[in-house]
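FAQ
Q: What does a multi-component entry look like?
A: The components come first, one per line:
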Amino acid sequence: MTPLEQRNLKMGLLFCAPWLIGIVTFLLYPIASALIYSLCDYSVLLPPVYIGAENYRELFTDPLVYKSLWNSVVYATGSVLLSSLVSLSLALLLNTKVRGLAFYRTIFFLPSLMPVVAGSVLFMWLFNGQSGLINAFLAMLGVSGPAWLADPRFAKLAMILMASWGSGHAMVIVLAGLQDVPTALHEAAIIDGATYWDRLWHVTLPMLSPVLYFNVIMGIIGGFQVFTQAFIMTDATGSPERSTLFFVLHLFNVAFQDLRMGYACALACVLFLIILSLTWVLTKVSARFIVYDR
Amino acid sequence: MTGKRKRTGWPRAFLHVPLGVLAMAFLTPLAWLVVSSLEPREQIGKVPPEWLPRGYELTLTSGERLWVTPPERVGTERVLVVPLAGAKSGIPVLVSPDDFSNGELLLRTPQSATSVKERLPAKLIQRVPGYFVSVSESSAANYANQTARRFYVDARQISSRIRLLFANYEQAILALSTETHDPSISLGTLLGKSLLPWTGRGDTSRTVTFLSYLANTLTVALLGMLGTVFSSALAAYGLSRIDWPGRKPLFAVTLATMMVPFPVLMIPLYSLFRSLGWLGTLAPLWVPACCGGAFNIFLLRQFFATIPRELSEAARLDGASEIAIFFRIILPLAKPVLATVALFHFLYVWNDFLGPLIFLTDPDTFTMALGLQQYQSQSGGSEWQFLMAASVLLVAPVVVLFFLTQKTFIRGIATTGIKG
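Then the predicted structure of the entire assembly, as tokens:
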């Protein structure tokens, strides 16, 4: 190693030292502990006791695991699809050089700033079965609205709708992506006689695919971790009929209500595995459709 | 505008139709939040909903004016009398004119209208003609109060006006405080207690208020902002401007850490902080941030990579150390991105709920978001006007911050996607 290389190694380590300490203390150590605790009976109050794969065996027979996993899958899928659709539509509408772009962008973006706690309280009020604004609007159209958060068939949908209200964040990302699509491509397509929809399908969407992929991945990772909304709107119970008992809410209750930290760690490891494999599968599947051509 | 119709068959101005509808849809929940927070309780939950916070003002013959509940028709002629003896002595009752004559009130048993239970001496207060209306005093504080005065008056004495009930905010702040909700305590007294802790000395119970929540949130946000901006910038520099063997793998690891879900870490972190004695303190919420954050490092690295290498080379030839280059050249250039990182971290702290929920055990240390949730959970879905007011208090700072820093914001978010 030359003196310069030695110096650079020292400097690199020095600059990255806080971050390296952070990765080890607040990331690698917790992940390793989670794996170990998942093989233990652990209540925090007493030291962990090794019980082998008992937690994982229990996990497969726990009906609440299946129920909550299903709830999270429905929520993550629904919210990712709806939010992607909404953010893409908004961005396409705004990318037309329409007047007042900044004005509309601000309006669409604002709701995504809403702290989830405040948003949940607000949407409990909006979705109120008797006197909520949403049912009042539906009544105006002659539809008698459901009880939303009190109806097991509609509670998840209500939360998905609430998530789509926060699509403004993704919209800003998509809009930036749209503005990066070279105009030359569009001009060439127009000369070839392509309609707006042709160009959307053959130029815009392929050029936008990395951005959409980023939003979908982030949406799925976030969707599987949905917790706060359900915790607040159902007072941690996942009511009605456990239709909003999401995986992380179940995990939280197991850990901090039942104080079964070992079992909760097993649930956490399963969650990690699911998110990792989903990301991997999505990357593999989407590789064919994504155009990285910049 | 009209000159640009070449590309599509429709004038571009038509786009304002879908955009306007969508804008309405996005704004309505926010508008409803603000409107609900200013409405008197009688208006909350009305079907169909009322968008204008409206109150009824009663002008008494004495000239006194006061806010009252929506008027209800009395219907048939009544008399308002006060029994002078018996269990209900002194409490005014509204009875049919047939039941009161010559200073004597016939009290009937509730089940049957014919059997007379008692005959009591009574005094006439007022004859209430059938076209009169009944109202009672209305203020944010006295809803649950049985002592609210009730009036039977001519409808012409009542006028309807816009009434923005800012007192809801006062009530919300009082309710957010963990002290028992007592309408007789004034806001000033309560805030004074929390500002001047020594005035409460001798009290065994400490007063926790809205202001402590605010102070806690700001403490976590400011310490974390300073820590994460500095550490993330250091790491980003090490990852982008120094050639060392660990650089590429560490950057890959950094990106990968963004995918680790917090629920996976929370139990080991809980037990780690527990053994450090940090549970119930603010430390778990800001100390980890001082090691930097993957997302921030990524954002800063992308920016540092665009700064020409020659700039550092020149400084190096002049004998500047790596640390001097970092502080004197790179950081000043990166001010806008550092601001973005600080802003995002502030928002993260302000909105964070799961962290405070797990690590904070003592109401003294609650953050704003946790305080709101605690209040919401105790109120059990009633008094929506106070809940909405409390929510506005949580949202308003974020909205103000957004309008002050709009450019930094939009640019910061846009960068995350493009290069992702």
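Q: Is there any commentary attached?
A: Sometimes. For this entry: Chain B touches chain A through 98 residues (CB under 8 Å).
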